[in-house]
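Memo to structure team: turn this sequence into structure tokens by end of day. - J.P.
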Amino acid sequence: MSKPSFTAYQSILLIDDDDELSDMLKSYLETMGYEVTLAPDGEAGLKLATGIGNFDLILLDVMMPKMDGFDVLKKLRQTHLTPVLMLTAKGDDYDRILGLEQGADDYLPKPFNHRELVARIKAIFRRLDLGSQVKQQQDLVINGIELSVSKQEASVKGVPLTLTGTEFSILRLLMVNAGELVSKEDISQQVLGRKLMAFDRSIDMHVSNLRKKISACCNDEKIKTIRGSGYLLRQQS
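Reply from structure team:
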């Protein structure tokens, strides 16, 4: 099996209490060129994630002893914006929605195909690479929202927004296309790096989180929903 070309992003923390699965995933991901650290429970995982590890991505299981994945994510997001891919129970919409509401970047239902996992990982790392490549682009100021591509920061009327990488990428895409409809399919392809699947609410939840954070800074609606189609960033309120 040929290894992919390395990027600057390859350090992964896997937090899962299934030792057999964790060992198998670690071996598989390492053959793909990634550096994988294992944590056997949520408590140990949170300690590593917020310590000196400085991981590029966290794979986070939901059901674990000592501290479940939701609690880990909630505490992690208080201090860190490290991309998180949640590993959820197959068919459990509640787990997926709650994970996205609390700041997960994406989710993958168990059991999953290893190639699908790698595809999701690569999509997240491609987004990080894109963020690095566009740092020299001009910053954006539209309808009271300021977005600094070089600093990967955003604010509304001078009030800083604390955004995950996925939320930042969605906001940037909407601002680049301000006043125009951006379809959910385009957002999924350009931000999550995958086709939009039927009944997939990932984009809806990310935009909902983005709206809440913007609304906390102002009263007017910045992002308009075009029912059944996508979203539009108003050029002026």
